[in-house]
Amino acid sequence: MTRLLDGKVTVVTGAGHGIGRGHALELAKHGATVIVNDLGSSASGDGAGRDAEVVVDIIRSRGGRASANFADVGDEEAARALVGQAYEEYGQLDILVNNAGIVRDKAIWNMSTLDFDLVMRVHARGTWLLSQEASARWRAAAKAGDGRTYGRIINTTSGAGLSGNFGQTNYAAAKAAIVGMTLSMSLELAGIGVTANCIGPGGITRISATSMAEAEVVEPDERGEDDFDPFDPSLASPVVAWLASPEAGHVSGQVIKAIGENIQLMSGWAPVRTASNGEKRWDATKLGSVFAVDVFGTRAPGLRMGG
Ligand SMILES: NC(=O)c1ccc[n+]([C@@H]2O[C@H](COP(=O)([O-])OP(=O)(O)OC[C@H]3O[C@@H](n4cnc5c(N)ncnc54)[C@H](O)[C@@H]3O)[C@@H](O)[C@H]2O)c1
Question: Cα–Cα distance between 2 and 130 in angstroms, integer?
């Protein structure tokens, strides 16, 4: 088998279960040393445990190199120390996969401020903290050398962040924030050879099972290799391994959905219609005629105007 990541060191957050576990195993299969981070919490962020050790044991039993880390990615000191662990134990960090996540779904009228803050904390703040620490170290290394370094940041968004979802104003806000910060980081880090991309994965995991009746959660390594299952949470992992590799140096600022058997390169917000009145400022009383045309499609039929 051709290995894409020999000699690389990676941190994968939330890699004790589900999608992150699939990434950690795939990156290790390609020769990367993996720091397997996981707080070991429930799908809603309660509690803590040593779930990361299970994945470390699997990687080691397959001949790979891995270490466990039990940090809460939303805790600044612990998040920075997680990046530091890569340098202390292995002398470098090449790849950061921000994947840790929780859900606390409720319609907005029932959602508490705590539900909002905790979800933002793990996804948005956690992704930012780890990316900030890694970026600062990579930039310092680039400045000390020839101006370039190897670095890959792979973040995790979701359909909720790209299109919204009922009951997920907290999660959608966090996942959209991750897209925005990925686009900004891709611009900021391009000069030093570091890429930043987002994947949109899928699969039946502890967090998606919370909204699916009778869904059975099966971890990636507990599945038979030959049975294709469109809900296997590790189906996005080959995309992560490739984005992490030297082959993908030209890919940055992208959102790639990898669900089931499909890989989709997403296109972001772009104008679908532009109106101009030939004057500098619009008059509100004239806007009704502009929006009388059905520019809203079927997505929010209640918003259709005119007609
Ligand atoms: N499952 C899906 O269909 C789906 C779809 C789109 C995006 N995602 C995203 O994929 C990622 C992984 O989710 P999953 O579906 O595998 O769920 P999961 O619950 O199986 O895995 C999430 C892991 O993150 C860990 N975690 C939670 N809070 C943490 C923290 N503060 N610090 C460190 N680790 C923490 C949990 O312990 C857990 O092991 C999430 O970012 C999620 O939003 C999932």
Answer: 30
